[in-house]
Amino acid sequence: MNYLCTTMVYLCGMNIKNTVDMKTDFNYTSATSTNHENMSDTLRKYYSSLLEKELNEQQSSWLTASVGSFIMTVMPLPIPDMLRLIAVAFFAFSLWKGKKSGL
Fold first, then answer.
1. Contacts from 91-99 at CB under 8 Å and sequence distance 24+?
2. What CA–CA distances, in Å, run from 71 to 26, 66, 91, 103?
3. Which CA distances in Å does 99 have to 42, 62, 72, 93?
4. How far is CA 69 from CA 4, 10, 42, 62, 78, in A?
5. Do 27 and 49 form a contact (C-beta atoms < 8 A)?
6. What CA–CA distance (Å, rounded) separates 34 from 18?
7. How far is CA 10 from the centre of its chain?
8. 39-89 per-position pLDDT tens digit
9. Alpha carbon of residue 96 to chain centroid
10. Cα(44)–Cα(54) distance, rounded to whole angstroms?
C-alpha cells in the first residue's frame, strides 16, 4: 500500500517535504475503536499520515479512486478489455482531478 501511495504521489508531481514537526494523530486501531468514526475519515487520516500533509475529504476521495483504478488497470484480473480501458481512463481522470484539487 505504501508503494502504491508513493507511486501516486510521484505521478501527481507532489513535492513531499520531510517535516519532523508534522502533527499526525492517526491511530491505527481507530478503525476498530468504539468512537464510530466513518471509513472516509479514517482513510483521510491514514493518507494524511502517509503523505505528511493534511488532506481534505475530496483529496482523499480522489486518492482512493486513483488507487482503486490503478489496481484495476495493472493487476491481472479476469475482466474484459473494455472495462480495463475504462479503468485506465478513470485512472488518468482521477489523477488529473487529484492534482487539480491540490493533492
1. 91/66, 94/62, 94/65, 94/66, 94/69, 95/8, 95/11, 95/12, 95/66, 97/62, 98/8, 98/12, 98/59, 98/62, 98/63, 98/65, 98/66, 99/12, 99/13
2. 25, 9, 9, 19
3. 21, 9, 20, 10
4. 11, 16, 20, 10, 15
5. no
6. 33
7. 12
8. 888 888 999 999 899 998 899 999 999 999 999 899 888 889 999 999 999
9. 13
10. 8
Which cell numbers in the block locate residue 90?
478513470
Contacts of 69 (CB under 8 A, 6+ apart): 87, 88, 90, 91, 94
Q: Pull the grid cell for residue 36.
A: 464510530
What predicted TM-score, i.e. pTM, was given to this entire model?
0.59
